[in-house]
Amino acid sequence: MKFVAALSGLLLSIPAFADSIIVNGTRFIYKENDKEVTVQLSNTADRPSLAQVWLDDGDPEATPDKISTPFIINPPVSRIDPHSGQVIRIKLNPGSRLSQTKESIWWLNVLDIPGSSKADKAPEGAGLFKMAVRSRFKLIYRPDSLSGRSSAIEKIKLQPAGSSLTMTNPTPFYITVATISPDGGEPINLDAVMLAPQSSQTISLRQTVHTGEKLMLEEINDYGALAKSKATAG
Predict the structure, then answer these.
(1) CA neighbor of 207 nearest in space, from 199, 218, 215
(2) Residue 53, Cβ density class (10 Å: 0-12 exposed, 13-18 middle, ≥19 buried)
(3) What is the pLDDT of residues 115-128, one digit of tens each?
């Protein structure tokens, strides 16, 4: 677990994939009765890669040796040959006590450390630079006592105040809203917003929203797809 410290100056965070290692999802849901969650890594390059996988609780700067989570990752480090794959298994530690009234979230990190191939030869007098690339993905733990996830976005409350909007999530689920738009119009939010369970967040908009105005919310669902829902401001 020392790769991150050694390569901290070479890391680049991107949202959905590493340099040559492709991950089979953008988010992973760990349901309470699941024995484990599997993550498929695929190396699409013509050279081997070393993959390091770990979880953090929201601090992207924390290194694996400083992080404690209730999960076991196997294997945490693996060599993936060219055009081959590796299954990563994530299992909840027996006896771990997690909230049973709302979802909990961690971030899955995949560090892609490229290896060498015979084609990796720099021109005479030139250096060869390789970059380790890190990707982060949501890992959400969902208690089995929770229900109504598919309709959760319909419960979001919107309170406009000029060109800002306070979004309240009264549900026990994490909800990621990708776009907010006037009904049938272009998106007016600047960035996607992730609403934690039973929380509120105020965001800036590109234009004023009035009480009673009809809006279209587009959320990223459990499968990484976009799902639309109508809402009324105020």
Answers:
(1) 215
(2) buried
(3) 765 555 545 554 44
Are the beta carbons of 170 and 154 closer than 8 angstroms? no
Q: What's the farthest any 2 CA atoms get from each other in the chain? A: 68
Positive or negative torsion for Cα 219, 102, 64, 20? negative
For the chain, the helix, strand and coil percentages under 3-state DSSP, each to the nearest 5: 5, 45, 45
Helices (H), the chain: 3-6
Q: pTM of this prediction?
A: 0.85
Q: Which amino acid is at 208?
A: T
Helix (H, G, I), strand (E, B) or coil at 156: coil
Number of other CB atoms surrounding residue 63 within 10 Å: 15
Question: Do 105 and 54 meet the contact criterion of CB atoms below 8 Å apart?
Answer: no
Residues 6 or more apart in contact with residue 121 via CB below 8 angstroms: 128
